[in-house]
Amino acid sequence: MSVDGEEAQREPDSQSQDKDFHSQVQGVVTSFLAGKSPIYNRLRGWKNKSGDAYFRKQRSTADQGDERTKRFFYNMMQNIGQDLHNKTGALRVPTNDNAEPTILDFCMAPGGVLAVCLRLNPTHRATTFTLPTEEGGHEVLLRPTTKVTTNYIDITMLATDMGTSTIPPEHPDAPNFLPLTLRPNQTFHLILCDGQVLRTHARAPYRERFEAIRLTVTQLALGLSHMAPGGTMVVLLHKIEALDVMRLLHTFSQFSSIQVYKSTRHHAQRSSFYMVAKDVQPAHPVAVAAVEEWKETWRVMTFGTEEEGRAVYDAHHVGFEKLLEEFGEEFVRLAEKVWEIQADGIEGSKWYRAAAETKGPEL
Questions:
Q1: How far apart are the first and last CA of the chain?
Q2: GO BP, one example (predicted)?
Q3: What is the CATH number of domain 16-356?
């Protein structure tokens, strides 16, 4: 799990007409939400340069942290994990079969949330992935144990697992793609999808425009395709009001029981939150179709042209009117929990109060 709180989900670089299209669509969504939720209206007015400076300083601290800072973030992630479990019961591994209970953790380092999982499930085993430190990944601070198998790799390079076995020899990353890592019939009862793009990760230039999407769909596709029926997925997301996040919540709601959780004592000012999906049914037609869509998105954004990648991204914005009609009311009910915590966090922050005392925040 990334420890710096938020690397915002970013739109891929696109031409101005594409940005206009995306802005228009999101504008309709924003108007819908504003008409439904006073809490959303309270939150969306914040525009404060002091806050921008505060978050930049936090990111710099996370990127260049000393041993004391690393330990602080590790303990913080344990707090978040324990609080999440206390609120949702998500981290105690459910088992509805005779298989050995297992945990899958994408982007595990430094290991704070996994440490909580192992305390709650002391007899269970975990398979984890984390970016090597020599490639810019975080140091693993989790105490070594034979119950945890850690793969030090970049999961966005898991081509064979993502359904692509033939790599064009001229591709910039041709030698870096990886063979099959997870067995086809290997399943897990609790899956943590909490990786974020790291600013410290050195990668080929072609990856910059779609990297956040590639990382997200890799976790979702591999996680759901290796989920034991009835298991739980915990997914770190940002900006719940973004259309792609709303669409993801709607998708999961069709084959699992979903709820959202946002910490009140860490990162409350940020847009980050967790989707908790329980009783996941990976064989449901919607789940199967979602996995195929995510794998295709990864393939196009890894091997396709920039124009092809934009086309895939644009397709995610089609049909938003139907989404609002079918899921809008339920979405607002879920999202208001996140918005209220974030709004309270901002209003209670030192930088916000300082700005209000001087010239007042731009509302």
A1: 33
A2: methylation
A3: 3.40.50.150
